[in-house]
Amino acid sequence: MNVLLTKKLSQDHMDLIKSWGWNFEVTEALKITLLNVASVPVPSDVWIISSRNSMEAVKKFITAAPKQIYCIGSWVKKELEKLDPEITTRSFESMKSLASDLARQNFERAVYFCGGEHRAELGEIVKETRTKISKVITHQSEMMFPEFNKRFDAIFVFSPRSAESILKHNSLSPHTIFACIGSTTADYLRDRGFTNTWVASYPDTGVLLVEFNKVMKSSQVIKALERLNQSGL
């Protein structure tokens, strides 16, 4: 199976992929630049963290953190629990589910650690509540608009912005499977006519890789059985 990874992964994840025998290439769709954050608004009732790219800033100011932190994905949650196990950390599978819960809680003051090109979904969902969101811009992302001539069976996509970057200069086969870190990324692709998407059950790179590998193995077994049935064996 020929696979395109649109960002560099950890060595553990790369070792997994190699053990499965995938033919893979790494082409970074985004260039991430971390910013120097000088301060964060205090006091606050809750922090919101949607990207692992914000974690350096979060670590810097963890002593100023409130009693609750909302985040997306298990990796961020685990890192937060290492920093301060006394803080209540709640993890969500998407910004939509996070924002919906935040709206129900109706906090007064929230601090949102995010990139400069963040989506407006959070603000739109909580705008009818009393929650005032202060943004802390922790990083910038630049779309690299990579070009590739090779056909891939699957492309791993980790954000709507990375999807936008790879679609800019490439004509992709309708048979290519887009393995998406979350539903927001998959929705972005579907809205642009790419319906052959697959979404992990939870927004975590390890979960995405393992689940996709299991699905592909099952698919290969089914196809092999179909060929046997057609041959009359």
Explained architecture:
By secondary structure, this protein is α/β, with parallel strands linked by helices. It has two domains: 2-29 and 144-231, Rossmann fold; 32-140, Rossmann fold (3-Layer(aba) Sandwich). It is built from eight helices and eleven strands. It has helices at 11-19, 55-60, 74-83, 95-105, 121-126, 160-167, 183-191, 205-231, and strands spanning 2-5, 23-26, 30-34, 46-49, 68-72, 88-92, 109-115, 132-143, 154-157, 177-180, 197-199. The strands form two sheets. A six-stranded mixed β-sheet has the order 3-8-7-4-5-6. Strands 2-1-9-10-11 form a five-stranded parallel β-sheet. Helix 6 runs parallel beside helix 7 (183-191). 34% of the residues are buried. The mean pLDDT is 92.
In a nutshell, what does this entry contain?
The protein is 37% helix and 24% strand. It is an alpha/beta fold and 233 residues long. The chain is globular and about 50 Å long.
Class of the largest domain in CATH? Alpha Beta
Estimate the strand proportion: 15-25%
Q: Strands of the largest sheet, in order across it?
A: 3-8-7-4-5-6
Average residue-wise pLDDT: 92
H/E topology pattern? EHEEEHEHEHEHEEHEHEH
**How many strands, what sense, and barrel or not for the largest sheet?**
6 strands, mixed
Using the CA coordinates, give the radius of gyration: 20 Å
- Going by helix content, strand content and strand pairing, the class is alpha/beta
Question: Which spans have pLDDT < 50 for at least 5 consecutive residues?
Answer: none
The total number of structural domains is 2
- Terminal CA distance reads 27 Å
The number of distinct helices, counting runs of at least 4 residues, comes to 8
Q: What is the global morphology? A: globular
Helix content: 25-40%
Q: Tell me which CATH architecture of the largest domain applies here.
A: 3-Layer(aba) Sandwich
The CATH topology assignment of the largest domain is Rossmann fold
Overall number of strands: 11
